[in-house]
Amino acid sequence: MAVGELYRALWRRKLIVVATLALVVAAAVYYTSRQPKEYRATTLVRIQQTISNSAEAFGALQTGGRLAQTYAEIAGTNTIAQKVYLGLDQKIPYDQIAGSITGSQVEDLDLLSISATSRNPEWARQIASEAPAALRRFISETGTLRDHVVTIQPALPPRGPSSPSLRLNVAAALVLGLLLGGGLALLFEFVADRAHSADEIERLTRRPVLSTVSKLDLVRAGSFEQTARPPDPPRRIGGEVGS
User: Fold this and answer.
1) pTM exceeds 0.70 for this model
2) Which residues contact residue 154 at a Cβ distance below 8 angstroms, ignoring those fewer than 6 apart?
């Protein structure tokens, strides 16, 4: 099927495409509204080492980047979750803390982004704010006293849920709806046994079309009967034929 024929086929079945698209988008909106909302808060920290002279400054910068990557992995462990739980005076259930903390290095710098997710936005902020202090306690307990965790930007209350994303789900539904609707339209087009143009008739029959008859608008049945009814027969009045 050529591109032009494909477009014409989709246009003839446009109602199928539109109906399928609307149905898929409505399902995506409904599904998103039924999903529990998750909130995320993030704290930005810097991992740096104590240096005794200027000659160690360049090496400390390179080491800071590697340490940020290492502490990013440590931030998501149960050890840090336990320290956060104790640091918050056990006000937030531990099962809401464990697995909710993630760390990621910012590019290749000595910066570390620590995030916490929760269905309670205030809990997410508190967990993310306590995570740097938990890392400091971990460092002091492991004896690596040269490493320092400096808070650059504390966690702020989330402005809105991080998931589910209605915009992302609707965008995906639009793409899926167009593909599904187009597929159904083409399927109906292939199954149908009706020719839609003279060119298609010639292609199917391999015979030339000599002429075509345009679509006629027939008059209403009542008007046709009124026009075609024969005249009334003459009536006999007083023994004579009259009109």
Assistant:
1) no
2) 43, 129
